[in-house]
Please model this.
Amino acid sequence: MDHGPRTTDYGLKTSEKLFDEALKLMPGGVNSPVRAFGAVGGNPPFIARALGAKLWDADGNEYIDYVGSWGPAILGHAHPKVAAAVREAAERGLSFGAPTELESRLAAMVIQIFSSIKKIRFVNSGTEACMSAVRLARGATGRDKIIKFKGCYHGHADTLLVEAGSGAATFGIPSSAGVPKDFAKHTLVANYNDLGSVERLFQQHKEKIACVIVEPVAGNMGCVPPVEGFLQGLRDLCDAHHALLVFDEVMTGFRVALGGAQELYKIRPDLTCLGKILGGGLPVGAYGGRKDLMDQVAPLGKVYQAGTLSGNPLAMTAGIKTLEQLTQYQVYDRLNEISAFLTSGIKEIIGTKKIPARIQSVGSMWTLFFEKGPEAFKKFFHGALKGGIYLPPSQFEACFVSLAHTKDDIEKTLAQVADTILTA
Ligand code: KE4
Model:
């Protein structure tokens, strides 16, 4: 069994040395902020290789992986059928900037899976998907304002990088430098699972709201499921006020069910944003929905959106091969069963050891919340990492189980959690 790289594979470069070098070259030494371990301290392991549910870092340490590249690795890393198909596709050229049959094949698969999606546009990230869906909602309704929820994350487009200040419903306050107040003022912020805060915004801004964009299961404040009636309430409010309902299923799509949260909770959005699993680990995002809306996207309509590498053959190939695996018989029964083995095991540990913590989950996405706050999470995180369990380095992220996690992986994880949670 190949146990990943030896440190010598990288000329004795340890993660620490690699991080020192990276810090000189890239802001924070990373290409996405959360990877820098800012919320938990310490230096991030530099990953050299991954296979199935395992990661190996540049120092040769092995981990059981519950980040899964923040969701895409639902099959496990380097699935042989996906990797082989991408290798073959690369031999035929990496990108053409011209239509290919592969795009139509993946589009047809998604449209088959999501009954609310009649037409789809591929982009390169979840950010692009959400940004474009919001632009389309504004273009189609002629309205400028949008409603998002505090704690929900839809990528880093200016109009969505906006958090409420305190208070239930307020004008958006930029959560990043560089977002002009003039942009943020069109982004209204409500409280997740609080329909009243949404209703008040619709009352205050009659006829001015283009859409409500929501994570149908929140994953970016840790895993927070929708309370009974919340999603249907959003559907009803959007219908009553002639606004569009946009489900950001970048994380939940193909995750909480093959057809995402809209399948699980039986709510039909007008537009859906997808990403992560859709590309199987290669950069793919997408937005899609009602035909009368999607036909307003260039070149057919007046809502402009474009992308050099959108729909490129390698990413399409990875997506097609990933969905081929996910559409097999009883895949989600298997995934949910192994996930429940983990989450119920953690729940039992918390209960018997009387730990002030709680686990929240929907299928194979879960978060262990520490009531004593970030310090407790930080201790737990590092204890788990030392014990070979790789978790997201932030209390406010979701963990993911893959189809490659075995009973043995889960038993090892539970033993480590039982050990480490006492130190938290
Ligand atoms: P990307 O642009 O990162 O592909 O997708 C943005 C996005 C949109 N919508 C949802 C619900 C998302 O969760 C994301 C991205 N998720 C984060 C982690 N929760 C990606 C990790 C990171 O930022 O490095």
The pocket of KE4 is lined by residues 32, 34, 70, 125-127, 130, 153-155, 215, 219-220, 248, 250-251, 275, 285, 397 (CB under 6 Å). The domain at 13-65+331-423 is CATH 3.90.1150.10 (Aspartate Aminotransferase, domain 1). The longest strand covers residues 209-214.
